Amino acid sequence: MDTQMWVITHKNYPGISDDLYRTLHVGRALSQDLGYTGDDTGDNISLKNRNYCELTGLYWLWKNNQCDIIGVCHYRRFFLEKGRMLTKEYIEKTLNDYDIIVPTCGMVKEENVRKQYAANHYEEDFDICRDVISEKYPEYVEAFDIMAESKLLNFCNMIITRKNIFDDYCKWLFDVLFEVEKRVDISDRDDYQKRIFGFLSERLIKVWLIKNEYKVKEQNVKMMDSDELDKKSSLNNAIRNVYQKITAGILKKYLSPTVQPEKINQSVCSDGRIPVWTYWWDGEEKSPEAVKKCIKSIRDNIDSNKYKLHVITLADCQQYVTFSNIIIDKVNSGKMPLDILAQRLSMELLYRYGGVWISPECFAADERVNDFIDSGEFVSLKHEGICDKSFLKGPAGFPLFGFVMESIDTYFSFKDDLLSQDMTDEFINIACEHIDYVHNDVDKCPDNNKNCEFFKENADRVYREEIWDDVAKDTWLYKLQSDRQYKQKNIIDKDTFYGKIICR
């Protein structure tokens, strides 16, 4: 299959070793030749680059390039999967299940996309764009209005899809933008605001995706120089090879038909309720305020008729699990971080007893947490395509939990320090790649709602009811940071989002 990733650039940059990646010099008609393929041959709009930005590259690829699958990224922004640049194999496999790959949504700080555009650009351009769509493509107006009233955008004009879908998108996009161009006067604007069509297209791709109901895969994007990213990808691959060698023997065990855990304490919930596990090593009473609020939210919102919360501490953890002498020595010597020990704890608790693990940095806003827990035998959220270890539910003996638990133990029997902070994620990935029924169960899990990170940026901002109502309508789980000092009031004594929601 002819799969191509085109790196859009307007300057020289270090090359990428993978032949999948090709370079396209945009705006070449306005600049010196850099020695790359240029967007100024054949049918092109290279002279419009100052107003259309990377879109002159998309236009050229639409009109002049043929392939089966086409992707567009930037010379300093690349799609990543598990910290590595996308490979041909990954793209083709992903597009067997999805129609399009786009950057993970970002959330605007303003009330919605319309107000965000008005705050940063010329609002009349936004309105003219809607007018054009209502005249030329009235069936897209509803999708435009949904985009305008939402808080989410796929930035950067980056996309990977089959060439026929790419061509359909470009035909629609440029038909809209060329008509908008006829109706706006940008002669008095500064150079930044003259990039109007690049700005509008970042909104229009969302309109197109909504209207056509494509199955979309959102992919993490990282801003980094290509040579640095290339080296990082090579390093990550080397680290991953170490993890695969360490886990090879364990994997054979968990590929066998039956693997049963040895249960330590079968009366952990003698009343028949399902255990819900969380932890704080020093105990809940000594935890930071944010952790106290998170644990309280879990206790208050889980169905106490079905579930029983257990808050594990360092003092009582070995009533429930067994840490080897090697693990204990590594923790005592500072070679095994306590957050990795907590991940090890979660896997053994779930493997031995089953139930639900919820990180003490997760805030359950309401009783919808029960609907999610009850939605299947194995339940998790996914982040950037992998199982989110901060919220897991599964039966005792589920191979994923045992595999990760034993992988952590085996790693520290050979190593004294971490190769990477995402070691547990790597072990989860290995299990998902090689154990089919684990892969199938994880693949069914939904992606994290982007609003789960709402408090990362907005916790200390002044509370606004209309913003919160929009966020909360489809979000019930939020992530906080245990080491952060949040403010309940701002300097003029107004409630913050943290104060109004978390501390209510």
Main CATH class of the largest domain: Alpha Beta
Q: Sheet bearing the most strands, described? A: 9 strands, mixed
CATH topology of the largest domain: Spore Coat Polysaccharide Biosynthesis Protein SpsA, Chain A
How many separate domains make up the residues? 3
Helix share, percent: 40-55%
Spatial shape: globular
What is the percentage of strand-forming residues?
15-25%
Sheet with the most strands: spatial strand order? 3-2-1-4-10-7-11-5-6
User: Structural class, judged by helices and strands?
Assistant: alpha/beta
Let me know the number of strands.
18
Keywords:
504 residues, alpha/beta, Spore Coat Polysaccharide Biosynthesis Protein SpsA, Chain A, 3 domains, nine-stranded mixed β-sheet, five-stranded mixed β-sheet, 19 helices, 44% helix, globular
Describe this entry's structure for a reader:
There is one protein chain. The chain is α/β, with parallel strands linked by helices. It has three domains: 3-224, Spore Coat Polysaccharide Biosynthesis Protein SpsA, Chain A (Alpha-Beta Complex), CATH 3.90.550; 228-287 and 303-443, no CATH class; 450-503, no CATH class. The protein has helices at residues 49-52, 55-64, 88-97, 113-120, 123-136, 141-149, 163-183, 196-212, 226-254, 289-301, 325-332, 338-353, 368-373, 399-414, 423-434, 436-443, 454-458, 465-472, 497-502; strands at 3-9, 21-25, 37-38, 69-74, 77-81, 84-85, 100-103, 106-107, 152-153, 159-162, 216-223, 274-279, 307-312, 355-358, 362-364, 379-383, 386-394, 477-479. Strands 3-2-1-4-10-7-11-5-6 form a nine-stranded mixed sheet, sandwiched between helices. Strands 13-12-14-17-16 form a five-stranded mixed sheet, sandwiched between helices. A two-stranded antiparallel ribbon has the order 8-9. A hairpin with a 2-residue loop joins β16 and β17 (386-394). The N and C termini lie far apart (56 Å). 38% of the residues are buried. The model has no long low-confidence stretch (mean pLDDT 91).
